[in-house]
Amino acid sequence: MSHDVAVAGVGMHPWGKWGEPFVKYGVAAARSALADAGINWTDVDLVVGGETVRNGYGGYVAGATFAQALGWNGARVATSYAACATGAQALDTARARILAGLSDVALVVGADTTPKGFLAPNAGERWDDPDWLRFRLLGMTNPAYFALYARRRIDLYGATPEDFAAVKVKNAKHGLNNPNARYRKEVSVADVLESAVVADPLHLLDICATSDGGAAVLLTSLDFARRRGLTNPVRISAISTVTPTFPQTVMDMPNFSTDSTAAVPAPERTFKESIGHAAYEEAGIGPEDVDVAEVYDLSTALELDWIEDLALCKRGEAEHLLRAGDTSVGGRIPVNPSGGLACFGEAVPAQALAQVCELTWQLRGQATGRQVEGARVGITANQGLFGHGSSVIVQV
Hints:
The protein is α+β, with helices and mostly antiparallel strands. 35% of the residues lie in helices and 17% in strands.
């Protein structure tokens, strides 16, 4: 049975710090996706919203929030929450209803207005909440975890701060020609290394910002796409939303300990490795078939981890690919041609959708100034707190 659905349209609201309600960004992205598809809002029969719920600010968003803002049309609604993997989980909900024959045209929307500074938990005492506990007991912000992961690469594979800086240099160059990116400025390795140290060995320019922004993807059944004249649309052929397998032997934010292997041996794959593996299995392809990847670069060092987690190279080889230019546009396996979170920053419910938008433009040949020539298969990777992970494979 085919798991494919058509990506009929994609749209984004430019990312930045706009200070507007996030519903405004989501509506702009949704209207852009509808226009891209040439499909009327009245034809949409399902709206899936990526839920924005963080830090106690007003306005929890659900599918019905966007449906109302776009104008009630009788569509069914659903809401998904998976932290930074929210967008992919929302896509999976929409895809499932399409494949079940319960929907023909599904609009998936994610948007965010973020607070200034790093993301922190809501106020109050919650002793069963690991995200709250790590702040209370350890004072561990997200960048502190990013630094631990970076230090691990240094210790295991000989990575250097210059390597991490080179990731930022690459992504900044990619983002120059992305009209939706927040940061569109070239930087040098020296610029990165001379920026403030946030959590050793990572500097300010190694770490992504928090941003406002929105993204939307319009999915349809393949039959509906054919009826509308879309004879060779970009297709989603796999969506992975797997959870970890016990025991977890690699530290995973926001936890501050790993599981023991005294009673149960370590699983064949780490959590992050299993995310991409499940997507490959579902799509019936392998990493050797991938032409372009959009990965979750919360920090420069994490991008290198994801290249290996997606099996785009062997363990410890990501730095070699980077240094050879293989992960740049024009190289063997371009990574984050959009500019990644380095150029966008985090707008949590929109991130995984933004990745699919970028890959759709790449596979259509519409990524002007950053185009990966001849791209036919793309993969995303994203990870959210509390065991949420996602990978989406798109093909044409």
